[in-house]
Design a protein that fits this description.
Length: 424
């Protein structure tokens, strides 16, 4: 049975951005519903089983939401949106319709994978996926782990593996040394980010860190046994039990597309107050561009105030300056850690492109459109609805994002994300 409910503001995604947005709106007298696919708020970045073990910033934000009277609905996902004023939510099999005056999208980002031979072997997982497994209790003590990808998440996960007793054989960053130095100089200007980077590197100090390094081929008989890496122009093989891979994160725009919000450069386009091109819809956090949890929280604060009618508060000079700084950092991330040509050329004709439908590279013509690939090779037709192969095809062939239609097959509340838990 469908029940019709109402909230002044509905926030989709309970990561840092969503929590901040919900709190800001509720503190201004609005009734706020916060929808989250995970069992607990915090998203992937604060994925947890014990809130007391979280960083103080996370605990403060969650306490703020509770004190503001935000209603959190966990373990559910948004499946349809007939309009910005009516959302259809699946709560563990029960379908509810929620009417609202304002929607704030905080659906985060998901991992981008660039296919290479052996990447679908059991034991090969996303870097963020490995982090999620660790937070879920995966035992890694005395296991051999290689991390090969790109972006700040590498060191964060390496630190978590080391702290859990795993043996990090290699941390391979595909970006070049010069690009990484430029990035480091920018980080030096931010004391908080600098302290965080130092703490991560200290936690995994015994692990070799190499730039200009990436996974070329994963080997194994039924499961991962070793990985061949290109390390500064030289190939070598490393025996390992787990391989974490990934080429950064991409915004999760499905809900924005469903609501017909304008999408630019793969992210939901927003104005100075985080409003989208659709009246009554705001977007915050990684779905508007990957930039980290601090910037996402600022965007959530701006959107929550704006959605509650406090345009003056949302446009405060301090908030706008902090948000703009976060956006600049996001552009630096994108420039520094973009997949390099050598990585984009790793796949062979037999390499799997769409793992849901088991489609190899040889079955796809790069000159096709995404629709042709769906019709003729079933690319993007599997259970993830293109969540994995979609960003791969964009990076490899320059294809645009697939058309989104209800019901949202890939959880609208997230894959790997700082918004909802699957999975920014």
């Amino acid at each position: 049975m469908r029940r019709v409910r109402h909230a002044d503001v509905v926030v989709i995604g309970a990561g840092p951005a969503g929590l901040a947005a919900a709190s800001a709106a509720a503190e201004r007298g609005r009734s706020v519903l916060l929808v989250d696919q995970g069992l607990r708020p915090g998203g992937q970045i604060w994925r947890h089983r014990d809130e007391q073990a979280l960083p103080s910033a996370a605990r403060r934000l969650m306490a703020r939401a509770r004190n503001a009277g935000v209603k959190l609905v966990s373990g559910c996902r948004l499946v349809d949106a007939g309009s910005p004023n009516e959302l259809v939510i699946d709560f563990r099999g029960r379908i509810d319709r929620h009417q609202t005056d304002a929607v704030i999208i905080a659906t985060g980002a998901r991992e981008r994978f660039i296919p290479f031979p052996g990447w679908t072997l059991p034991g090969v997982t996303g870097i963020g996926g490995l982090q999620a497994l660790l937070k879920g209790g995966l035992p890694v003590a005395d296991t051999r782990i290689v991390l090969a990808g790109s972006g700040p998440l590498l060191l964060s996960v390496a630190a978590a593996v080391a702290q859990a007793g795993g043996r990090v054989q290699l941390v391979g960053e595909q970006a070049g040394a010069a690009a990484l130095r430029r990035f480091a100089i920018r980080v030096l200007r931010d004391p908080a980010k600098l302290r965080q980077a130092i703490s991560y590197r200290w936690a995994c100090r015994s692990a070799p860190f190499r730039t200009d390094t990436w996974a070329v081929r994963a080997h194994g008989d039924g499961r991962l046994q070793s990985v061949e890496v290109s390390e500064r122009g030289h190939l070598r093989s490393i025996r390992c039990d787990w391989l974490g891979i990934g080429s950064g994160l991409v915004p999760n725009t499905d809900l924005g597309q469903l609501l017909q919000c304008q999408v630019e450069h793969g992210a939901i386009a927003v104005d100075a107050l985080q409003a989208t091109s659709v009246a009554g819809v705001w977007a915050v956090g990684e779905c508007t561009g990957v930039k980290g949890d601090e910037a996402a929280t600022i965007e959530g604060e701006i959107a929550g105030r704006a959605a509650a009618g406090d345009a003056a508060g949302a446009g405060s000079t301090a908030l706008q300056a902090a948000r703009d700084s976060g956006r600049r950092f996001g552009r630096l991330l994108e420039e520094t850690f973009a997949p390099r040509p050598e990585v984009l050329a790793l796949a062979t004709p037999d390499t799997i492109l769409c793992r849901c439908e088991d489609v190899p590279m040889r079955s796809v013509d790069p000159g096709w459109t995404p629709r042709q690939a769906k019709l003729w090779a079933r690319v993007g037709m599997g259970v993830c609805q293109g969540a994995v192969c979609g960003p791969s095809c964009t990076a490899l062939f320059g294809w645009s994002a697939n058309t989104v239609r209800p019901p949202l097959g890939n959880p609208s509340c997230g894959e790997w994300k700082s918004g909802l838990d699957s999975a920014d």
